[in-house]
Structures are given as C-alpha cells and as structure tokens.
Design a protein that fits this description.
The chain has 2 domains: 1-30; 33-140, Metalloproteases ("zincins"), catalytic domain (Zincin-like). 47% of the residues lie in helices and 9% in strands. The chain has 5 helices and 3 strands, in the order H-H-E-E-E-H-H-H. The chain has helices at residues 9-28, 38-52, 93-106, 114-120, 126-139; strands at 61-65, 73-76, 81-85. Strands 1-3-2 form a 3-stranded mixed β-sheet. The structure holds zinc ion (ZN). Zinc ion binds at residues 102, 106, 112, 146-147. Residues 49-123 form the YgjP-like metallopeptidase domain. GO terms for molecular function: hydrolase activity. Keywords: Hydrolase.
Length: 150
C-alpha cells in the first residue's frame, strides 16, 4: 500500500487500520464455504488436491482448531492430519485455499525447500496469499508464520 510521505505516524496507523477494516468488510462476503465445518474443510482439500496436486495429497483429517499463537496451520505427515487456525475463518477464500494447498503439499514434501515450493506454486495465487498473510500478521502484531519448518 502506498501512503503519502507527509503523514504522521498516528495518521498512518489510523489509515492502515481503516484500510484493513474496509478490506475485511469487502472480503468477508467472499469467505470460503470451507469455514463452516471440518467436513467442508476436508471436502475443499479434496478439490484443491485434485486440481493442483494431481490428487496425490490425501489427508486423513482436516480440522479447525483454536487460534494458535505462532502458526496459521500445521500438518503431521506421519498420520496425515492437518489443523487450521480459526483465525483463518474470516480470510478470503483464495487465502484459505493457499494455506490448505501449503499443508497438503507437506503430506508429499516435508520442509520448505525448492521441491516444496515448486509444488505449492501450482496454486496460482501463492505469492499474493503469502503477502496477504504476512500483512495480516504484521497489522495485528501477531508474528504468525505459516507453520513450523518440518
Ligand atoms: Zn509449511
């Protein structure tokens, strides 16, 4: 976001907060249907895996969990479980989709090396979603990362 150079710090903070508020209001209408239940979340994962990962990532379970302090989501490849922070219930559907593709990819590739990102980038809005989540974390002063490096 570009801000006029002469804004004071207080004006700038006010403006950023206002923009975030407006953004959230307009984006809320486009929230993902997957926010409604764990079953809907799992169904969305099946669609995303089929579309972007050749159907190779098959989670055993995908669940909403209470907000985690440092992570948006987590994946345990050994038992195929994915957990998604309830902080993401209100983000736009394309951002949640990215988080799901990221965690689904961990079922295939542990860690965040080049092989991992090559697969994740099959999801076309990856870079935009990463930027959105970084902005959301920074604006809320949360310091949240996608997940733990596996
Ligand atoms: Zn990760």
């Amino acid at each position: 976001m570009l801000l006029p150079a002469r804004m004071t710090r207080a004006e700038e903070e006010h403006w950023v907060a206002e923009m975030l508020h407006r953004l959230q209001r307009s984006e809320t209408r486009r929230r993902s249907p997957a926010r409604d239940s764990d079953a809907a979340l799992l169904a969305r994962c099946a669609e995303l895996s089929a579309r972007h990962l050749a159907g190779k990532a098959v989670p055993a379970s995908v669940r909403w969990v209470p907000p985690m302090r440092t992570r948006w989501a987590s994946c345990t490849p050994s038992d195929g479980t994915i957990r998604v922070s309830e902080r993401l219930r209100e983000v736009p559907s394309w951002v949640l989709d990215y988080v799901l593709v990221h965690e689904l990819t961990h079922l295939l590739v542990p860690g965040h090396g080049p092989d991992f990102w090559k697969l994740v980038r099959h999801y076309p809005r990856t870079d935009r979603a990463v930027g959105y989540l970084e902005g959301l974390s920074a604006a809320a002063g949360l310091g949240i990362a996608q997940d733990d490096p596996l």
